[in-house]
Amino acid sequence: MVESSTVIGHQMALDRLSAAISKDQNSHAYLITGPDSVGKNCVANYIASALNCENTSQIPCGQCSQCNRISRGVHSDCETISVDVDGNLHGDGNKRTVITIDQVRKIIRESYLKPYEGKYRVYIIQQSERMSEEASNALLKTLEEPPEQVVIILISSVPEQILPTLVSRAQLISLKKVNWHELQKGLIQKFQLDNNVAEELSKTCDGKPGIAVKILNDEEYKKWRSDALDEVEFLAEASSYSRFIYGGSLSKRYLKDRDASIAVLTLWQEWWRDVLISSYGIDDSIINQSRIKKISYYANRYGSPNCARNVRMLTDTIEKLKKNFNPSLTFEQLMLSMPTLT
Fold first, then answer.
1. Domain ranges in the chain?
2. Under a CB-based contact definition with an 8 Å cutoff, are residues 40 and 80 in contact?
């Protein structure tokens, strides 16, 4: 079965999808929701494979040419649409933060064509909450009268920001964080990891298989994560003045790459949560197991009230940035309000 090689966890959802698709009871549109890195894209590809699988007894089989081409991202009837980050779509090199009407119009034009090599045309729209209003309305018209042999899969971590009428026309697949025991088992099966290594990695990933895969396969991501944790440890020791100066650099980084900056803050929030948990002596629930000694050190020096305050402040900062508050003032407030060591 495909789930053992491409999807870690979410077995109940996969079984329901396979059963429905095998009986030709698939939906013309799906909305896959859940936290970042929880496996939404993998489940979307699972659906695409199940819809086009050549096997009649067990779908998706993961072995036929259709499943193989979809897993390698070279299937002519399966396309992924995302934010045009480098201007390639429009040829002007300008970074865009929305999925445009032109991208959706391309889907609409192609959706009336017969599949080229498979049974279904499948369009996977990542970060679908970033569709412009025009794009959302155009897609809505297509979902109201969907062409045959076309399935559209919306992916989002914040479905409340999607046009409600779009949500109402899609079958919801809500993914939760994977239990660390289940994640550990999946990592052992997929990567043949040692049991202890798989246990530490599964706890480090906070129920998010995508992070586990990145840590194992992506050296650049591992460095980014390590650097971000080094930063939060530095700030834990820094004076108010040093933090104020540092806040200016954070603001500049945010203006260059909003998503990357929010990801760093989210990792800091996770680290301070670990420190808070350690302050209560519950070390088994710490996410960043590789830094448990330093986490315990800061837990003792800051104490539970200050740790909880830092978690709340980072949560508030992330929400403000997502609501387009002034980044310079937001970072300044964060840096000056965090408690310092005496």
1. 3-174, 218-337
2. no
Listed as own residue / partner, the contacts of 87-95 with beta carbons closer than 8 Å and 24 or more positions apart are: none
| Structural tokens at position 299 | 């837990």
Please name the residues in contact with 12: beta carbons below 8 A apart, sequence gap of 6 or more: none
- Kindly write down the DSSP assignment for every residue of 182-213, as one continuous string: HHHHHHHHHH---HHHHHHHHHHTTT-HHHHH
CA distance 114 to 112: 7
321-326: average pLDDT: 90
- Tell me phi and psi for residue 154, to 5 degrees: -95, 135
The Cα 66–Cα 50 span in angstroms is: 9
Residue 330 φ/ψ, nearest 5 degrees: -65, -45
Assess if CATH 3.40.50.300 describes domain 3-174: yes
What topology is assigned to 218-337 in CATH?
Zinc Finger, Delta Prime; domain 3 (1.20.272)
Distance CA 178, CA 212 (A): 12
Q: What pTM did the predictor assign?
A: 0.77
Q: How confident is the model at residue 3 (pLDDT cuts 50, 70, 90)?
A: very low
